[in-house]
Each structure stands twice: as structure tokens, then as C-alpha cells.
Design brief:
Number of strands: 0
Structural class: mainly alpha
Distance between the termini: 64 Å
Low-confidence stretches: none
Oligomer: single chain
Mean pLDDT: 86
Strand content: under 5%
Radius of gyration: 16 Å
Largest sheet: none
Length: 118
């Protein structure tokens, strides 16, 4: 139990994510939350890469809940993902979710240049 409390300090959005109210027919959201819970409690808290990945996943799923456009983007892209059997499926899926979010951020964030008038 103490281990879970240590892990939850890296996940400030944990309760928001697991208490997300989605439609009963929304299987993608249900599975994403299950992947989230499975992954964060399976990491080695002494591994810095795992901690960074958990923090990033927490941020991504918080954005999934808050941003409707990202939610629809992730739902469309996650169903087309293919994962090889000989890999760590859970970790690979988490990496793919983070990669989709990174691509989404780069695509939706525009660079705005302020021109200087002479």
C-alpha cells in the first residue's frame, strides 16, 4: 500500500483520470484508463525513465479528458495501432499514446511570429 502512495505522488491527475465519466459505449476510454492504472502500478519507482514515462502518461490522459479534439484524435489513431507480440505490450502502448500526444501538440500548436514594422 505504501508503494502505491509513492507512485501516486508522480500522478497528480490520477483521481481525475480514473473518475472520468464516459459513455458506456466508449470502449477506448475504458481501455485507456485500464492501461493507465495497470502501467503506473507496474513500474519500478527506482527507475528514472519509468517515473518520467508515468508523469508524461498522467499529463497525456489529463489532456485526453480536458481536450475534446485530442480525445477524438487519440480514439481514431489508437485503434489502428499494431503491436508485435514479442514486445512488452503495456509499455509499447504507453509509448504510442505519448507519441500520439506529442504529434498532436506539434500539429495543433502554431508558431506565431510578430513582425516588426519599420
Amino acid at each position: 500500500m505504501n508503494r502505491n502512495k509513492d507512485i501516486l505522488k508522480y500522478c497528480p491527475n490520477y483521481y481525475t483520470i480514473i473518475n472520468f465519466d464516459f459513455k458506456e459505449s466508449d470502449l477506448v476510454s475504458d481501455r485507456l484508463i485500464k492501461v493507465y492504472k495497470s502501467y503506473i502500478f507496474s513500474i519500478d519507482e527506482n527507475n528514472l525513465d519509468d517515473i518520467k514515462r508515468v508523469q508524461e502518461l498522467d499529463r497525456v490522459l489529463a489532456s485526453y479528458i480536458k481536450d475534446y479534439l485530442f480525445r477524438s484524435t487519440l480514439q481514431k489513431e489508437i485503434v489502428t495501432v499494431k503491436i508485435q507480440k514479442d514486445t512488452n505490450i503495456l509499455r509499447t502502448l504507453v509509448d504510442i499514446i505519448i507519441k500520439i500526444f506529442t504529434n498532436y501538440e506539434e500539429y495543433t500548436t502554431r508558431k506565431i511570429y510578430i513582425s516588426k514594422w519599420i
